[in-house]
From TrEMBL, chains A, B:
<dbReference type="InterPro" id="IPR000843">
    <property type="entry name" value="HTH_LacI"/>
</dbReference>
<dbReference type="InterPro" id="IPR028082">
    <property type="entry name" value="Peripla_BP_I"/>
</dbReference>
<protein>
    <submittedName>
        <fullName>LacI family transcriptional regulator</fullName>
    </submittedName>
</protein>
<dbReference type="GO" id="GO:0003700">
    <property type="term" value="F:DNA-binding transcription factor activity"/>
</dbReference>
<dbReference type="InterPro" id="IPR010982">
    <property type="entry name" value="Lambda_DNA-bd_dom_sf"/>
</dbReference>
<keyword id="KW-0804">Transcription</keyword>
<keyword id="KW-0805">Transcription regulation</keyword>
<dbReference type="Pfam" id="PF13377">
    <property type="entry name" value="Peripla_BP_3"/>
</dbReference>
<feature type="domain" description="HTH lacI-type">
    <location>
        <begin position="4"/>
        <end position="58"/>
    </location>
</feature>
<dbReference type="GO" id="GO:0000976">
    <property type="term" value="F:transcription cis-regulatory region binding"/>
</dbReference>
<dbReference type="Pfam" id="PF00356">
    <property type="entry name" value="LacI"/>
</dbReference>
<dbReference type="InterPro" id="IPR001387">
    <property type="entry name" value="Cro/C1-type_HTH"/>
</dbReference>
<feature type="domain" description="HTH cro/C1-type">
    <location>
        <begin position="5"/>
        <end position="48"/>
    </location>
</feature>
<keyword id="KW-0238">DNA-binding</keyword>
<dbReference type="InterPro" id="IPR046335">
    <property type="entry name" value="LacI/GalR-like_sensor"/>
</dbReference>
DNA sequence: TTCCACTCTGTGAACGTTCACAGATACCCA
DNA sequence: TGGGTATCTGTGAACGTTCACAGAGTGGAA
């Protein structure tokens, strides 16, 4: 009825707790006969180590907490999330560690995260989509707990290491491509200006266009489809003669596409449209979106690796930036 | 340097461990003066209870594990997931419980989940997208751990309680609508036949059409966009004169839409197209999809409630089915 | 033979809680 | 006044591990 403990295994194998513990943790200095007997006893009794008891003495939690910093409603809109989560679960499982998910949408949430970490219930923290100025970042930094971010945290690039795609370079790629296609009046719909994707994709755009990137041709969105629609409407009103648009995300591009269609503009004939991310939606619009592919899997792998390195005691792990790739489809 | 323990709080407040513990757990029989002193001491010392120590003695884990049963690549394709996860996190947080995510894609994964649960590290299990015949279900049932599923588990409806939308009724709604629009030859693209959405949406379709639902007009997909594309192609080849298609998911519908367009069919003029889910993609296609809305938030809430009731000791909690809603847009 | 190093094992203490119990005080009612 | 009840508090034991230490056995070198 009761779950078997290390004592039961020891008794069944005819050894002491200490020896069983040594086998469990792969210590040296265990005779093969003892090891064999213990392994059989573990199988027979169906013994599973109690992590709570272990954590209590080792002061290690055996888990990592992933913190989603978006306000509640927006969570998971970004396809980036799923890849990072999936990768984290898999890599952590390899070490017999588990992943706890928490949301940090408001102050109460943040408090809960801090309490959790303070309680020693996580060996590390993985930040997702943290915005500039998030108080959580400094609080975590003060606790000296291993932390990493998937995508840079604006203003704290040197505090929290990160893995990210080359946001700026990717935006340059797309802008250059639009220029090469002979487009003369290229507009941009950016992301929120407190996120790396928002800021750096605009920088890349400006890098290529130089003085031609006028304020008039720039509108800001918040990554949602709806914001893409309305930003596009504002752009059309202000500059009806634009002949290309670079949206900082595929989702916003799909919104822009609706507006363009409603305004009677043909894509790509009248207006070329470029996206960013190469998320699922890029394939489902008509015409399919020309976009910039983020190496999501690689970014996720690197993010987790950085965190595990930190947990393993590395003093300072450098951030990683991974190149993007232009995917040409039908919209530009 | 070291984290404060309950002893430190007791010392600071001038009481004993026991009294502090009582305050922590909201027991009766604590004087207001003691309570006040302890609360101040907690604030001063920055004390946070150590869950490991607590779990060790209470035999409660303070966490729930959510198990994603899809093979690795498909995880999170379903927008259902995000809502359920988000809701779970929030409701659990209210009780100061946390959510651990695990993947059960292959046998090794399932083993890990079982070990985790067996180790007593979860108070309950929330199953997501579990397919018929998954060995995990019976294994969990044998362990008598509180378990719930978001969406029924085919063949185990009486073993694992669930919350789900009225799959069959929703499919009836859509089919009836297509008939009312005067469509004569209605085809269906189903989901996988080992999932409730696959089976029951087809049943609803057949309920309405009766004998007119011929095998020739039914094709199976696997929820992906690509499978929608190819199923549509097979349908067109076999029955070029069809005038309506009901796809069991919006994502598959968006695939079908591409194929229809490539084949020169106008939607909805030549072929009416209905989806299911009312997921984000339904708004981003052109024309926007007429679809069946699943009350995702409500389903998620009910799923979590059932699990919490079970954890609280309820002997048997009935499953819940929630009605769907027809959303008419442009595709039908 | 003696000593040291290496291998292997068992034991007590500690990790930070909760819980059951017992003791102390205060109050009310007969 | 006495006894019962309700309120409040402290204490020892237990939860299931790991870790440091000590002790025992073996083999080889001096």
């Amino acid at each position: 009825m009761k779950r078997p403990t290390i004592h039961d295994v020891a008794a069944a194998a005819g050894v002491s707790r200490g020896t069983v513990s040594r086998v469990l943790n792969g210590d040296r200095y265990v005779s093969t006969s003892a090891r064999l007997a213990i392994e059989r006893a573990i199988a027979e009794t169906g013994y599973v180590v109690n992590r709570n008891a272990r954590s209590l003495v080792t002061q290690r939690a055996g888990s990592v907490v992933i913190v989603l910093s978006e306000p509640h409603e927006k969570i998971f809109e970004d396809p980036n999330y799923s890849t990072t989560i999936r990768t984290s679960i898999r890599r952590l499982a390899e070490r017999d560690m588990s992943l706890v998910m928490m949301i940090a949408g408001d102050a109460g949430d943040r408090d809960r995260v801090l309490r959790y970490v303070k309680g020693g219930h996580a060996d590390g923290v993985l930040l997702l989509s943290t915005h500039a100025g998030d108080p959580l970042v400094d609080a975590l930094d003060g606790m000296r707990i291993p932390a990493v971010s998937c995508g840079a945290v604006i203003g704290r690039e040197n505090v929290i290491p990160y893995a990210a795609c080359d946001e700026r370079g990717g935006a340059q790629q797309m802008t250059r491509y639009l220029v090469e296609q002979g487009r003369k009046k290229i507009a941009m719909i950016t992301g929120p200006m407190d996120t790396p994707g928002g800021i750096q994709r605009l920088e890349g755009f400006a890098d290529v266009l130089g003085r031609k990137a006028s304020k008039k041709l720039i509108e800001h969105g918040d990554w949602t489809r709806l914001s893409g629609e309305s930003a596009m409407a504002r752009l059309l009103e202000r500059s009806p003669d634009l002949d290309a648009v670079f949206a900082a995300s595929d989702v916003m591009a799909s919104g822009a596409l609706s507006t363009l269609r409603a305004a009677g503009r043909r894509v790509p004939e009248d207006v070329a449209l470029g996206g960013f991310d190469d998320s699922a939606v890029a394939m489902s619009t008509h015409p399919a979106l020309t976009t910039i592919r983020q190496p999501l899997a690689e970014i996720a792998e690197e993010t987790v690796r950085i965190l595990l390195d930190l947990i393993d005691g590395a003093e300072h792990v450098p951030s990683v930036t991974i190149p993007t790739m232009l995917i040409v489809r039908d919209s530009a």
